[in-house]
Amino acid sequence: MVYDGDGNRVSETVGSATTKYLVDDKNPTGYSQVMDEIVNGSVTRTYTYGRQLISENQLVGSSGHRVSTATRGNTREAAI
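Above: the chain sequence. Below: its structure as tokens.
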């Protein structure tokens, strides 16, 4: 695991997969938040924040499907 100067995790390698984390430290929550997860150069997960987590979008396998989850628990799947 690799951390930046502020103590935020910015990357992690498990086996041959390296996940990089794009961190926003200036947002309405007042805490550093991960905005994107990038695995081996491809964005696999994105997060949207307001004062709390609004949604999470995740690429599912190599099928081109994304699963979106809103904070109220609603889940939608869409083909890309």
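The mean pLDDT is 80.
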